[in-house]
Structures are given as structure tokens and as C-alpha cells.
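User: Some background: our group keeps a shared notebook of sequences we're curious about, and every so often someone picks one and asks for a predicted structure to add to the entry. Today it's my turn. The entry only has the sequence so far, pasted here. Could you supply the structure so I can complete it?
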Amino acid sequence: MKIVGINFDHMHMGDLLRMAHEHPRAEIVGVCDDDPARMQTAASNFAIPPERIFTDYRRCLEQTEPDIVILCPATARHAECVEKVAPFGVHILIEKPMAASLADADAMIRAMEAAGKTMVINWPLAWYPTHRTAKRLIDEGLIGDVIEVHYYDGNRGPLYHVADKVEVSEGEVNRQKPHSWWYKRASGGGSLLDYLGYGVTLGTWFHSGRAPIEVTTVVDEPAGLEVDEHSVTIARYEYGLSKYETRWGAFTDPWMSQPQPKCGFVIVGSAGTISSYDFEPVVRLQTTDHRPAREVPVDQLYPPRQNPIQYLIHCLETGEPVAGPLSPALSRIGQQIVDTAVISAREKRTVKLVS
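Assistant: Of course. Here's the predicted structure to add to the notebook entry:
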């Protein structure tokens, strides 16, 4: 599979290219960004020669003829980039979130349907062994029907790290903050658009695809910033309430040391509960026949279900349909909830789920 990476707005491009670099049946045939400086680290890490480095996406696609394009643009440009790239007849992996709006998400789906190709939306949390294990336990019926999902997630802020979770100094963060797309409303910045999609998309997965009836969201209003750094969303389902909270400004980054509150999920069922925290070696399970919480070691993940590159290539090679959080159908439900949350926060009221 020939793979190119286009647009380095999101630092996860480096992580995704590393997955492609390590895949035995994949080859990075090009990278492209308006700013050559943003590609230097990837070019060095993966030995990408100068003739495979582009600043014009058309030349990149025409000269490399890839099978798969990885897209990592700013959230507000997801639909624009998919609509530009899809006509080249490529499969697309786009980094989370799905889009800046439901209208954009639908435009992306239409563009890929017209091209007759596959699109996946990568949610890195979907590959954490804890959350995969939690979903298996749910599917096995150990906690009955899911009736509540409680989610809290985030980090110190999007500028505190780059690809491969390399840390950035406080001074550099402060220098970048006034200019970064992460803090621009028009670019789709803010903790809500960055992290709520994670919670509600995986939450919909845990809820077996069921959507809420209405949504109530509150965001902070930091002085001097255009966007939020903290949001709380309550989703009302026919059978109960779920809560999804996003945070830039957590005390620590969860991949280094879990902050308090812990980042991850607590899932309540009709016959038990599961706590599934990011990066931990166990999940904690309560059931009606064993009410004290017991630790369940997380499942070991094997190819082709260790990361999105493995999974997409597997689906393309075998014809297996894309399922779970990476599927446009499930991610679209998450986008409905995010759109409703944005309206609720703006208008400071409860809003029925948008369609």
C-alpha cells in the first residue's frame, strides 16, 4: 500500500506516519504541507527523500499515485481537504475529530461515496487496550445493558507536545499560543471540538450505537481566548443520563502520569460497572455476582488491530467492513452530539439532538 501524508496541522501526523513506516506492507511515498519546515522531522525520522516532499497536494497525488492518504488538517478544514483529495481515487484516513460540523461530516461522506473509496476517522483512544477490553466485556454481557457513560479526558494542552509525545517547554507553548490554530474559533479550536468527539464517539460505541435525545453543554470562557479549555456535556438518553467532560489544563498529561480526575471512562450497566482509564494495565469490573470491584488485565492487542494503519490496510485487503469508532456511520452520531453541544453551549440551553 502506497501512503502519503497531507497537511501537518495536527501533530498526530508524525504518529500515523510512524505506523505506516513500521507496517510490512506499506510504503510512505510522499508527504505534503504548505510549510516545508513542518515536514522536516518526519522526513528525517522516516528517511523520506527530497523528491517525495511536496508543497502542492495535486503534484503530490499525481506523482506518487498513492493508495491511501493520511489527512491531518485543522478541524475546520476537514471537509475541504477530503473534497479536494477524494476525486484522486484514494482511500482516506483522517485524524480526529470527524469534522467541525455535521454538514461538513456529511460533505465528507458524500465525497467518499462519489469516489467509491473508503474513509476512516482515527480516534487514538479507540486503540487503548483498556477501552478495547471494556468494549469486549460489554459485548459479553457482563454488565448488562449500558445505561450510563461517564467520560473525562484531555491533557495539559495541545501545544505541550508534538509527534511521539515529545514535550514542549512552557516558554515555547506561551510563544505559540497566540498564533496557533488550536486557539482560533474559525479553525475549529477549543477543548470541546478537540476532545468531546472522543468521548461521545466511543460513548456511542459503548451504548451499542444508540443516540441521545437531547444535550446540555456548559463551557468555560477563559479571559483573552476565543475558545474553551473546559466543557461539560450531559446527554439524555431514553434510559438515562451520560456525562462527557473535556479539559485542556489537566494537572498532568495522562500518558506521563494520570491527573486527578483520571482520564478515561466509567461505564454503568444494568448488571455491573467498568472503569476504563487511559494507559492503565487493568480495567475494574463490578458485576451482580461479584459486587466488589476486581481488576481484569487488559487484552493484548495483535495485528491487524493495534492501530488504524494496520486496521485500514486489513479492511482494504480482506473486504472486511470498517466497524466501530473509525466508521463514518458511528462517527457521524458522535458528530451529531458534538454539533448539538456547540449549539447548547452557545445558546446556554438544552437542545434536542440535531439530525
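Suggested note for the entry: The mean pLDDT is 97. The first strand starts at residue 2 and ends at 6.
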